[in-house]
Design brief:
195 residues; mainly alpha; 7 helices; 78% helix
Length: 195
């Protein structure tokens, strides 16, 4: 197997791994306010998230920027909590207004940057051959992006099933999912070594 394919698969597995629950919860907390018909907005939101984490994974992996790992481990669930908590208080379809979408894009970049630091610690732990690091980095980053697209597509299909076919009220859907994720995020914050 080529190194590129190996690191691509590692990136995909990093997101889809059951132990990567923080990343999956964050993606769901971003997506819960959307439906399948909002797919263009979802793609733009994912692009901004990917942009944010690509910047910091690059800076941290190539030792341009240092960071406190314990602080990042606390900030990850904090981003999940903040995103879920704000979902609870959004008015119906409030997220669709252009001004609110711009705020979501900014948050996606900022929160993506925080998540990128965490990705970099995993990536740098795997790389040994600094000669091929750019190939490994690009493959790993593409794998992470693919994993996020898989999670996003799966969640939007599940949302379609519950909202359109079963007929669950959209506001109830957002409230229940966001509240549950916020609760898990609070637990993760208190379990963090940052305290």
């Amino acid at each position: 197997m080529s190194q590129f394919l190996l690191f691509y698969k590692l990136g995909v597995r990093y997101i889809l791994d059951i132990y990567s629950v923080e990343y999956i919860l964050f993606l769901i907390s971003l997506l819960v306010v959307f439906s399948i018909k909002d797919w263009k907005r979802v793609i733009i939101l994912l692009v901004f998230f990917i942009l944010g984490y690509t910047i910091t994974i690059s800076l941290a992996s190539f030792k341009v920027m240092n960071y406190n790992q314990e602080l990042i481990e606390f900030l990850l669930p904090l981003t999940i909590f903040f995103t879920s908590f704000t979902n609870v208080f959004k008015k119906k379809d409030n997220f669709r207004y252009q001004g609110n979408m711009r705020k979501n894009y900014v948050l996606a970049v900022v929160f993506g940057a925080i998540h990128g630091f965490s990705y970099s610690s995993y990536f740098t732990g795997m790389t040994k051959d600094s000669f091929r690091i750019w190939d490994q980095f690009i493959a790993f980053n593409l794998g992470i992006g693919t994993g996020q697209i898989v999670v996003s597509l799966a969640f939007l299909l599940i949302a379609f099933l519950f909202l359109s076919i079963i007929g669950i009220n959209r506001r109830d859907w957002v409230m229940v999912i966001s509240s549950g994720i916020a609760g898990v995020a609070i637990t993760l914050m208190f379990d963090s070594k940052f305290w």
